[in-house]
Inverse folding.
């Protein structure tokens, strides 16, 4: 089937779940997906480790990390990172991270953004209610500082595979 | 699930990251095996006074297949004679994984302190698959299962109703139980019984993805109970006397008819035995005429009210005489209930 062919192609291209921007410009922008794995050590302590996304199953949590590096000669400002919550996944509440960033979300495919507390959705009964994290469609990180040449920073979020 | 023709490609591997891998539990409406999850991030920024935008390449991964199954007996004992034929117990097979999966079915006798007798296998126990025409087991309709010939193929989240259909051996004692265990194993090679988390490379749905053994270890079983009931209750109804208003025995209007309900219990105790006798059409109950003979006691008259005695008329059941005999030990002789009605 066509879909399967596409999937194989994509997997070959991104076997490590890692991608780097092709565009020319001072910012080199990369994106990586990693699966969370709960492990228990000899003492019975649980901890979370990151693994490849080679085998992802329903119930798994996947961490997306987008890293931007200034490889140019001058400082870069007004950096805004946009990332849609992938289709067939659910954003995990409070999982968006980013140093020196303001994080806003969208529930309308990225047309409008707001903080988690201000995001509303019209429920089945016609009344407005606060949107649930799993209803978020897009995440935006507004990076406050300038990024000096040679510097890099990253933003991340997690999704659950239903 | 994947066809067996590519067995040579099997590689067994177990997910292992610095210790024991915890396996998450899966709920309904799981993401289907083979679903592609893709993501592209975009960054915009300002440099040298001008806005610029850049995107990452798209990263994508495919959701693999988790093989999970549950099998549940409906907990309704089959009450059977000894011997008996074609007695069914009912199970539900649920594919709780996220792909389409095929399961092979087997049945086995049980050895446990509460299991009193075994069945002759395979001759006396068949597995049937509900064909959807009529709910419940129908010998004429439902599909006989033949091992590895018509193994049920179950879609993600879907279920099948299965029946064990057994012939019961003779000579069993009242209340003896025979237990049978039905087992469903995934037919994906290497799946059934393997540790949760075992990876079966390229054996997932369609063959392009891996199959991972889920917490059920890709097999499931449950045990049903056949319970022997040797008690038989025979109820016969006969007309005892007819008395017409002219002193004769003609069945004419105003004639009084007394009939007898004879109850025979043999082979054990009939539990919670209640006799309900609707007054026949075109007759009227003659008040105060319920007679109960519970041997060895002589016949006594029961009142029509619902009171201290065990009988009533038109109260427990409208238009009927009800006599509550309760747990009735067999072999104590015939219980007679006499009732008199008048022909309208």
């Amino acid at each position: 089937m066509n879909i399967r062919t596409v999937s194989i192609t994509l997997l070959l291209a991104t076997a490590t779940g890692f991608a780097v921007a092709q565009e020319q410009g001072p910012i080199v922008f990369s994106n990586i997906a990693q699966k969370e794995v709960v492990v228990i050590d000899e003492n019975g302590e649980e901890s979370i480790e990151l693994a490849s996304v080679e085998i992802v199953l329903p119930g798994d949590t996947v961490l997306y990390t987008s890293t931007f590096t200034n490889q140019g000669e001058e400082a870069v400002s007004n950096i805004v990172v946009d990332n849609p919550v992938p289709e067939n996944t659910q954003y995990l509440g409070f999982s968006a991270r980013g140093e020196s960033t303001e994080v806003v979300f969208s529930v309308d495919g990225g047309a409008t953004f707001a903080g988690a507390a201000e995001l509303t959705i019209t429920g089945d009964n016609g009344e407005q209610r606060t949107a649930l994290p799993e209803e978020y469609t897009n995440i935006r990180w507004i990076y406050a500082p300038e990024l000096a040449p040679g510097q890099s920073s990253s933003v991340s979020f997690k999704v659950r595979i239903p | 699930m994947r066809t067996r023709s590519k067995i040579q490609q099997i590689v067994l591997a177990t997910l292992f990251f610095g210790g024991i891998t915890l396996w998450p539990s899966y709920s309904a409406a799981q993401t289907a095996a083979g679903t592609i999850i893709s993501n592209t991030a975009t960054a915009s920024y300002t440099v040298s006074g001008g806005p610029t935008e850049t995107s990452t390449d798209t990263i994508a991964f495919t959701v693999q297949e988790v093989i999970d199954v549950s099998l549940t007996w409906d907990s309704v004992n089959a009450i059977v004679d000894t011997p008996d034929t074609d007695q069914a117990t009912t199970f539900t097979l649920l594919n709780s994984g996220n792909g389409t999966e095929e399961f092979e079915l087997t049945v086995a006798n049980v050895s446990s302190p509460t299991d009193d007798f075994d069945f002759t296998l395979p001759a006396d126990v068949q597995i049937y698959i509900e064909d959807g025409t009529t709910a419940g087991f129908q010998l004429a309709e439902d599909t006989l299962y033949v091992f590895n010939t018509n193994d049920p193929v179950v879609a993600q989240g879907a279920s099948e109703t299965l029946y064990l259909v057994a012939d019961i051996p003779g000579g069993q004692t009242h209340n003896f139980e025979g237990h049978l265990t039905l087992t469903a194993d995934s037919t994906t090679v290497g799946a059934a019984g393997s540790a949760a988390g075992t990876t079966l490379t390229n054996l997932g749905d369609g063959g392009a993805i891996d199959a991972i053994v889920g917490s059920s270890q890709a097999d499931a079983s449950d045990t049903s109970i056949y319970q022997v009931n040797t008690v038989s209750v025979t109820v016969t109804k006969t007309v005892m006397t007819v008395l017409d208003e002219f002193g004769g025995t003609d069945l004419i209007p105003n004639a009084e008819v007394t009939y007898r309900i004879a109850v025979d219990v043999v082979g054990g105790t009939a539990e919670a035995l209640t006799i309900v006798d609707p007054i026949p059409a075109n007759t009227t109950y003659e008040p105060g005429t319920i007679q109960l003979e519970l041997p060895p006691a002589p016949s006594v008259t029961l009142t029509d009210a619902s009171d201290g005695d065990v009988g009533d008329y038109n109260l427990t059941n409208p238009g009927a005489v009800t006599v509550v005999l309760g747990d009735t030990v067999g072999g104590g002789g015939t219980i007679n209930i006499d009732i008199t009605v008048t022909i309208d």
Chain A has one helix and twelve strands. The longest strand of chain A covers residues 27-40. The two ends of chain A are 24 Å apart (CA to CA). Residues 1-16 of chain A have pLDDT under 50 and may be disordered.
